[in-house]
């Protein structure tokens, strides 16, 4: 298989309003992973997006916009594999098999389903309920070992580990009979990579709420397509408390807005909260926000401009996605063949070599 030591997989939903949390918690870290001895796959998860209603007239544009964000942030589509989920049918196929491995009780515990379904749970789509199972399929179709995500995905990654372990366990005899290592199991137990100062970026209007695409207030988030003026205005309006910044990280506890702005600053600058407070401990928010505006604009304005340039050429983006889908399928297809053998399906022998 691949000559790389690690296989990294992660995904972003094309549901519009990509924001600073998506960038600092995920996309920026995807770029950093390219420096490791790893094959990286970065997926625009359009099948996840439709678990909530998406306007068909807008969805293609949203898919291309996330792809543009990947590229503008520095993901190299030659080194990494960039594609959209629906172009690689193995995701849906494996998700079905995993639907028969995962237990209802496991899914009933998923907090994100409860949040997204809201009060009217009876009216939520079955897809929204099964969302984390498709996520496990995304990861395990490539037998990925490392998954960089924001903190809000922790529970979903634990479920992925549970599904991998139950599959390895339920089918251990068959796995061995088909010549796979029964000791290690067929699927790896994936390592979630959650961390850094921006694993959970909070709303600029309320430091106790996650920065989110679906917040009604546009001032709660910095969108990746915001221009310099919008970024500056949102940072200046961000909620703070009346005290100066503390000189130690411990002094941020109980001050969610201060903690959030310091975390954002640290992540943008690639330093720790400690480093930021060494420089700004004792400073008033007015001064700190000035420095944050400068840093945020310096990083994000060129990113937004590059995204706009890239989406203006959809054919170029579609070519990246098509090339990525072919390379992704070349990894996922043999996994699915093996899974079908392990489960006991009669599989169509290939009359023609896989393209
Ligand atoms: P999505 O599109 O909701 O989020 C994409 C990534 O952004 C991170 N994120 C944040 N990080 C820090 N602070 C925030 N406020 C914030 N908001 C979002 C998310 O944690 C995520 O890493 N279910 C996934 C998509 C997915 C996936 C996968 C991820 C589908 N299949 C397989 C990894 C592996 C999601 O929520 O995307």
Automatic annotation (TrEMBL):
Pfam families (UniProt xref): tRNA-synt_1b
MF (Gene Ontology): tryptophan-tRNA ligase activity
UniProt motif ('KMSKS' region) ranges: 210-214
Residues at which L-tryptophan binds: 138
Catalyses which reaction(s): tRNA(Trp) + L-tryptophan + ATP = L-tryptophyl-tRNA(Trp) + AMP + diphosphate + H(+)
Gene3D superfamilies on file: HUPs, Tyrosyl-Transfer RNA Synthetase
Record motif 'HIGH' region, residues: 14-22
Keyword Protein biosynthesis: yes
PROSITE patterns reported for this sequence: AA_TRNA_LIGASE_I (PS00178)
Binding of ATP, residues: 13-15, 21-22, 150-152, 201, 210-214
Keywords noted in UniProt: Aminoacyl-tRNA synthetase, ATP-binding, Cytoplasm, Ligase, Nucleotide-binding, Protein biosynthesis
EC number: 6.1.1.2
Main localization category: cytoplasm
Location in or out of the cell: Cytoplasm
Family that this chain belongs to: Belongs to the class-I aminoacyl-tRNA synthetase family.
Description of how the protein assembles with itself and partners: Homodimer.
Protein known as: Tryptophan--tRNA ligase
Organism: Methylobacterium goesingense
């Amino acid at each position: 298989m691949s000559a790389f030591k690690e296989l990294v997989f992660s995904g972003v939903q094309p549901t519009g309003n990509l924001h600073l949390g998506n960038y600092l918690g995920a996309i920026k870290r995807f770029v950093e992973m390219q420096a490791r001895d790893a094959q990286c796959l970065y997926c625009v998860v359009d099948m996840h997006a439709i678990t909530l209603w998406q306007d068909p007239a807008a969805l293609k544009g949203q898919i291309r916009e996330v792809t543009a964000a990947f590229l503008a942030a520095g993901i190299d589509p030659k080194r990494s594999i960039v594609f959209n989920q629906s172009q690689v049918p193995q995701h849906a196929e494996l998700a079905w098999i995993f639907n028969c491995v995962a237990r209802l009780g496991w899914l009933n515990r998923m907090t994100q389903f409860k949040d997204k379904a809201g009060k009217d749970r009876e009216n939520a789509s079955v897809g929204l309920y099964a969302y984390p199972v498709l996520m496990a399929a995304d990861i395990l179709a490539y037998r990925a070992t490392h998954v960089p995500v924001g903190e809000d995905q922790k529970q979903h990654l634990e479920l992925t580990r549970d599904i991998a372990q139950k599959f390895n366990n339920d089918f251990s005899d068959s796995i061995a009979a088909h010549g796979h290592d029964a000791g290690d199991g067929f699927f790896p137990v994936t390592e979630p990579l959650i961390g850094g100062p921006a694993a959970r970026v909070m709303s600029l209007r309320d430091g106790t709420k996650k920065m989110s695409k679906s917040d009604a207030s546009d001032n709660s988030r910095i969108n990746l397509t915001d221009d310099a003026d919008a970024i500056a205005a949102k940072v200046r309006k961000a909620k703070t408390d009346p005290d100066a910044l503390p000189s130690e990280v411990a002094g941020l506890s109980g001050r969610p807005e201060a903690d959030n702005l310091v975390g954002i600053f640290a992540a943008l600058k690639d330093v720790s909260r400690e480093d930021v407070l060494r420089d700004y401990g004792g400073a008033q928010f007015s001064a700190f926000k000035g420095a944050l505006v400068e840093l945020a604009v310096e990083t994000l304005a060129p990113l937004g401009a590059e995204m706009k340039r890239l989406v203006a050429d959809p054919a170029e983006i579609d070519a990246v996605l098509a090339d990525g889908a072919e390379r992704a399928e070349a990894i996922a297809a043999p996994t699915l063949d093996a899974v079908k053998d392990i489960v006991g399906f009669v599989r169509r022998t290939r009359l023609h070599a896989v393209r």
